[in-house]
Amino acid sequence: MRMYDIIESKRDGHELSDAQIDFFVQGYTEGSIPDYQASALCMAIFYEGMSEHETARLTLDMAHSGDIVDLSVIPGVKVDKHSTGGVGDKTTLIVAPTVASLGVHVAKISGRGLGHTGGTLDKLESIPGLTTSMSREQFFDIVRTVGCAVVGQTDNLVPADKKLYALRDVTATVDSLPLIASSIMSKKIAAGSDKILLDVKCGSGAFMKTTDDAIALAREMVAIGEHVGRTTTALITNMDRPLGQCVGNALEVQEAACTLQGNGPDDLVAVCIELAANMLELAGKGSVEECRAMVQEQLSNGEALQKFAQMVKAQGGDEHYVLAPECFGHDTCSVELKASCDGWIHHMNTEQVGLASTALGGGRATKDDLIDPLAGIVLAKKTGEKVQKGEVLATLYAQNGAKLTEGKNELSGAYTIGSEKPVHEPLIYARVTRSGVEKLV
Ligand code: URA
């Protein structure tokens, strides 16, 4: 078999055979297929797409390119959760302990932030002492005893995706539906959970800019999950504005802890309740409506917060930061961004908000950049709110004035203020399951 023929076949719009896909994934992972041929194939897939069968085969091959985590040593149903990435998305920190406090195990393998989106590992590591790097046995032990743990990916988990994702990132082939679906689902399958809840973000801060594209991606991933016997549900949620009021690592952990204390911002609380309720439903705890009520109870009775504190302690972190989140603080240099006119906030370019946080030191432009855990943004006003000229829209924190200036310049371009009250945008657009698409608006 020759890679040339595989590229030509996809370029001409043909369906690839299982053997051709196997040949590509194996050869690219072990290094016998060079980057230039792999990028040509990715570009052909970008233009010609893939059938459901091809995408499922690609996903399975990638999942099996390295270790598969065997969670059978942990009793009960294990439910995973994955977000396609956004700005201010600290939901894992809230949802994982909430679900675990109701007896459902969450063994979560998370990633770091890159570009405008944040990463759960970076957020958690802003808690003094906490580690996200441990042996498989320690990870299982924490999940078994506490109910949840969040760790980083080892080198041998889905090596095919690691190589391919880095290549796509520099060859303008990231935003291809079958390539995104196979990249995400291969990691979920390798991570070993029985059930998967996907949070597919949609809007200016997400890969998928429209609800139709987000639903198409969700359908593809739900179909792959079904194909491999892992029941998968996807929620399509709004990322046309940042989630919650805080963007930045320690700031987001602080906001997550406040949410677990029952004092979270409305949008973050609402999305977390839906995500946690759907994870519990997947685990067989009841209908989504019944599970929603259970989640609300855990957020108000302090049990979800206690579970988060237990997880933090088990991972070596100082749990006092979670129980008294004001311990965190933020960088001492700060500046306020003020409204330039009276009106209503019509839109926030959410990617730009994420880039502003990166410029402040809260994110990475390249994967080797160091993060400042105490940098970030506290948003005072978001889309849909009325503002007066001179009113504070946001406070920015960084280690020095140069970073503050860069972050403020980026953030000031993110707001669009108009004279009319804007149309209210929903937080959750749709729920996608094996039974189909349930539009929620
Ligand atoms: N997240 C992933 O893990 N892979 C993609 O291709 C896009 C987002």
How is this fold's topology laid out?
Blueprint lengths: L2 H9 L6 H13 L4 H14 L3 H12 L15 E5 L7 H10 L5 E5 L9 H5 L11 H10 L2 E5 L6 H11 L7 H14 L4 E8 L8 H17 L3 E8 L7 E2 L1 H12 L5 H17 L5 H13 L2 H12 L5 H4 L9 E6 L4 E6 L1 H13 L13 E4 L6 E2 L4 E7 L2 H12 L2 E4 L9 E6 L2 E4 L2
Parallel strand pairs: 1-4, 2-3, 4-5
Antiparallel strand pairs: 5-13, 6-9, 7-11, 8-10, 8-12, 9-11, 13-14
Helix pairs in contact: 1-3, 2-4, 2-8, 4-9, 4-10, 5-11, 5-12, 5-14, 9-10, 12-13, 16-17
The protein binds uracil.
Short account of what is shown:
The chain is an alpha+beta fold.
- CATH top level class name of the largest domain: Alpha Beta
List how many beta strands DSSP finds: 14
Per DSSP, the total helix count is: 17
- Terminal residue distance: 49 Å
Q: What's the CATH architecture name of the largest domain?
A: 3-Layer(aba) Sandwich
State mean pLDDT (0 to 100 scale).
Answer: 94
User: Strand order across the biggest sheet?
Assistant: 1-4-5-13-14
Helicity, as a percent range: 40-55%
CATH topology of the largest domain: Pyrimidine Nucleoside Phosphorylase, Chain A, domain 2
Attached small molecules: uracil
Rg over alpha carbons: 21 Å
**Whole-number tally of structural domains:** 3
Structural class label: alpha+beta
Shape: globular
Name the CATH superfamily classification of the largest domain.
Nucleoside phosphorylase/phosphoribosyltransferase catalytic domain
